[in-house]
Every structure is written in structure tokens, then in C-alpha cells.
Amino acid sequence: MSGKPKLHYFNGRGRMEPIRWLLAAAGVEFEESYLEKKEDLTKLQKDGSLLFQQVPMVEMDGMKLVQTRAIANYISTKYNLYGKDMKERALIDMYVEGMFDLNELLITYAFLPADKKEQHFANMIDKAENRYFPVFEKVLKGHGKDFLVGNQLSRADVQLLEIILMAEEYKPDILAKFPLLQSFKARISNIPTIKKFLQPGSQRKPLIREEEVPNVLKIFY
To answer: Can you give the pTM of this predicted structure?
Structure first.
């Protein structure tokens, strides 16, 4: 298959959003095929498109790629967002794995039953403010450069900005104690491809609304 990458997922963030961010940051145009009902997922499962019967799935370069991290690794390698050598890549991997842990807390919140939300919210904000964001503030201070790793944009920068913006939706002043992350956010947001992705009308997905959750759950369960 040639042409634009084609993303298969529901019309929302979930585990596909980091993929959208990486493609956008790389300046790559992509198409999306949305799962709207359970039958759409079943069709992909039955025709052999999904290696482990799960989405996200991205069609690109003649492959049907699954597993979020594997897809992100491929895109990052292809579009030079993965550092200049093995040591930089190891740092990027460490930082990104931490980001995935925080991302999981952020994206699961909307799908929790009402009686679990308050505790999850408190844990999510606590982890962001006291475990994850202090690490990246320290990294930026110690590194002394505009980017988390090396001296060029990497997937770590892209994915950290994504997570900062998500966390701010839940607590707008969450970066109050992190001046270097505030500067980082402004700097990375101003990179032309990312700035374009942050404009209204882009393929960036909004925070899921409570009334949309049941329809998404019906696709998967």
C-alpha cells in the first residue's frame, strides 16, 4: 500500500492519539477510518487485519501495524524523532515509558464508573505533580537544552507536550511549580507542524464527553 497512512480507531483520543501527534509533528498527512459500531471492529478482526484482535491499527508502507508502542517506534524511527544514537534512544524510551504510564491514568478516567472517579482523579493528579512532571523538570534543568534529549525534537518532546495539555484539561494550573515545563510547553507548541495540529479543525481529538462514553464502550464490549 502506498499513499497516506490510514488509522483505524474510534473517533476519539484513546491509545491512537499519541500516534496522531507523532504523525502531525513529522508533517505527515494521514487518513482515518473510524470504528462506529462493534461490527466495524469485528470485520477487521475477521479479515485478519488485527494481529492480536485489537486496535489501534495503522496501515502504512504496506504493513498493518498494531500495538501503540510498536507503531510509535516505527513512526519515530522513520521520521527522525528517535535521537541520533542508541544512548539517546534509550533515554527517549525511558522518558516515553513514564509518559505512557501517566497517559494511561489520564485516558482511563473518563471510562470509570462514577464511584471510582474521585479516587482515580486524586491519584492521577498526585502522580502528575509529584512523580512524573518533577522528573521532566529535572531533566530539562540538567540537560540545559530546548529538548528533553539531545539537541533536536524527539518523540519524547511531542508526547510530553500532549500529556501536559491533557493534564491541564483536568487541572489548569498543574504546571504552576514547573517553570521549565511552562517554557517547554510554549516552545514545543510553537514548532510549525505542532502549532498547525493545535489549531481548530485539525485531526487532534477533543476530550471525550461523558455522553459519548457508552457508545465507545459498545464498540469494544
So the answer is: 0.95
